[in-house]
Amino acid sequence: MKIVFDFGGVLFRWHPPSFLARVWPHRVPDETVGAEVAQTFFQSYTGDWGAFDQGLADAATTADRITARTGWPRAEIVTVMDAVPQELQLIEGTAALIQDLKAQGHTLHFLSNMPEPYADHLETHHPLGEWFESGIFSGHVKQSKPHTPIFELAAQQFGAKPQELVFLDDHPANIEAATALGWQAVLFTTPEAAREALQARGLLAAA
């Protein structure tokens, strides 16, 4: 069995409401407002940000488009975009889970919606090649979840039939897309819950 990890919100911290409250306190006084502003800024990872995710627009173009769409000052948009790498802190519980899965002989891959600049940052600052046999960043392949082509490309690259893949992701739409194509999938909430789910499937021995 091959186990496939999403990154944002699974292996690396990504919580837009609290992120925006930290980097944009003059616009986002708390996480409740942060959730509302995140919908406008990131458009549920469609639109301007979706094109950035897919490598169809660079950071400067994305900043221009968000500015034109929202009326927010471009410099403030760039501040948020430049702060994203710092937001992507390693989630230690997931890192420990990865090490345990590898120790028990599983092959690991990743499948992440990630704009190219942030993908490059993660590749530079974390030993992805040690943790994963291979992986796909949306920005590198010009496709993104939850669309079918990226899942088909992933199965091909990972050398597995869909039913041989177990996918951990924190977005229900991505889980639904994967299972519709025959993948096994676990909706990620916390490292502890993911560990329990993998143990229940017989993929990880209990500690």
From TrEMBL:
SUPFAM superfamilies: HAD-like. It comes from the Bacteria. InterPro entries: HAD-like_sf (IPR036412), HAD-SF_hydro_IA (IPR006439), HAD_sf (IPR023214). NCBIfam families: HAD-SF-IA-v3. This is Haloacid dehalogenase. It comes from Roseateles depolymerans.
